[in-house]
Amino acid sequence: MSNDLHILSASPDYRVLLEQISGTYTQGRVRAMQAVNDQLIETYWQVGRHIVEFEQGGKIRADYGTALLASLAKDLSLRHGKGFSRSNLIRIRQFYQAYPNSATLSHQLSWSHIVELLKIDDPLERGFYEQQAGRERWSVRELIRQKESALFLRLAASKDKAGILQLAAQGQIVEQAADLLREPYVFEFLKIPEPYQLSEAQLETVLCDHLQPFLLELGKGFTFVGRQYRVTINNTHYKVDLVFYHRILRCFVLIDLKINDVQHHDIGQMNMYLGYFANEENVEGDNPPIGIILSRNKDELLVEYATYQMNSQLFVQKYQLYLPDREALRRELELSLREAEQ
């Protein structure tokens, strides 16, 4: 019997069958969990609708309104157990108010995602994170991190009113090199306290040691190619700090790290790297490479002059090792929107 089992398990046809059954079972579990999640969200939305319609119908005196959720929490918990705490009922009520049409929500979002979205007061900001979390399939933890790093405010800072509204409605759609950029890039996940004393090599090392959150900060589509990537020109060796390939834009993305201000020769060197990759590394189907110099500080005028009539795929962006001042970024956004109305 054991010999028969050994022969059977070694059979190629049996291995195919085993993979088919395993794949079907795994897909079935995923679909079942998705169906449960969809039904839970739909149920909470309906509960929220009942509460709001009851309140709007004036079926209770206004001075009893604050007691409604407490009373419902008590009675529903006795009937159904967990899931009907007062705090959860507050979120369920808020859910219906924020999303009167639940069909617009991505099926990639769980109730835990929605709870995090409901903590955002600004509809524009909430809309962006809703779209982005669904499109990039962020975990709840990733969603929280992107909220804390003020991703929406950082991306919106460089856009006009139309761009801001599009960002809120659709999320960040990557169609060209400039769509990859964030100002500033935030590396708070490295947990390096201020003031810090890091060399460029050390910064590169710790970023590679934290590759998963680094890729999350860079955005969707980045795949890591290598660090200290050798470029040889006329028997002289140069090294690009970090090289990625972007699956959506179908191009190499070269990143150089600077702990001091960017100098004009840093920009010239990156332009040389771009020329090398375009001619020596690109294969059929690849688009021109993109170069990003990440610096602690940036002299805007120097960058403007140093990049005059240079490769439009070359960018100088700032980074920081701590979370940005959200309120300062929000004030900038509000100012941009007000100026657009004038």
TrEMBL record:
Every YhcG PDDEXK nuclease domain range: 179-333
Domain of life: Bacteria
Pfam families referenced in this protein's UniProt entry, alphabetically: DUF1016_N, YhcG_C
Residue ranges constituting the YhcG N-terminal domain according to the UniProt record: 23-154
InterPro entries: PD-DEXK-like_domain, tRNA_endonuc-like_dom_sf, YhcG_C, YhcG_N
PANTHER family noted in UniProt: NUCLEASE YHCG-RELATED (PTHR30547:SF5), UNCHARACTERIZED PROTEIN YHCG-RELATED (PTHR30547)
Protein name, UniProt field: DUF1016 family protein
Organism encoding this protein: Massilia antarctica
